[in-house]
Design goal:
With about 160 residues, the chain is mostly beta strands. The chain has no helices and twelve strands. The chain folds into two domains: about 80 residues; about 80 residues. Strands 1, 2, 3, 4, 5, 6, 7, 8, 9, 10, 11 and 12 form a twelve-stranded antiparallel beta sheet that branches.
Length: about 160
């Protein structure tokens, strides 16, 4: 992956080229602006840009930290597959308690709540959980999610990760 970042005052610009030899090539760009705790961004990605079945991703996102207490994040995205069908609009909303709770041994715990929609906003998944930060650059996430379809079972996920 080749990624170019440029920061100027409150603006950030990023362009990237990703190539995995097992997959097709992707090309993308992102621009964001941040001021007074509000961050607004737009992004574009041309997935499989050398192929006939390429996909164009368009995204708009915001993030706002209200009084250093609750962080709200939103994202609206569309994937253009070259067809006139518009059932690929998706939206995402997440709120988390930004400072979290400091607990001995476990570290900082941040509760979160969110909703993820798909199929032109007709279907959704509601999720909530806890993010643990027991060590620097490491986290544990516990999440429970409920899907809008009755035939899809609820999910309970645990993720453990360390960032190198």
């Amino acid at each position: 992956m080749v990624k170019l970042d440029y920061n100027w005052q409150q603006f950030t610009a990023r362009a990237y080229f990703a190539h995995d030899f097992a997959k097709a090539k992707d090309l993308g760009a992102r621009i964001s602006y941040e001021n007074a705790g509000l961050k607004v961004g737009i992004a574009f990605m041309d997935e499989n840009f050398e192929e006939d079945e390429k996909l164009l991703h368009y995204e708009f996102d915001t993030a706002y930290n209200a009084f250093e207490l609750i962080e709200f994040s939103t994202q609206i995205s569309n994937i253009d597959d070259g067809q006139n069908v518009t059932d690929d609009v998706k939206a995402y909303l997440l709120a988390n308690y930004y400072p979290g709770y400091k607990v001995p041994v476990v570290g900082n715990i941040r509760p979160f709540l969110g909703i993820d929609t798909r199929e032109n906003l007709a279907e959704n998944t509601v999720f909530w959980g806890l993010n643990f930060e027991p060590v620097e650059d490491g986290f544990i996430k516990i999440e429970y999610s409920v899907d809008s379809h009755d035939y899809i079972d609820d999910r309970f996920d645990i993720q453990v990760a360390y960032i190198f």
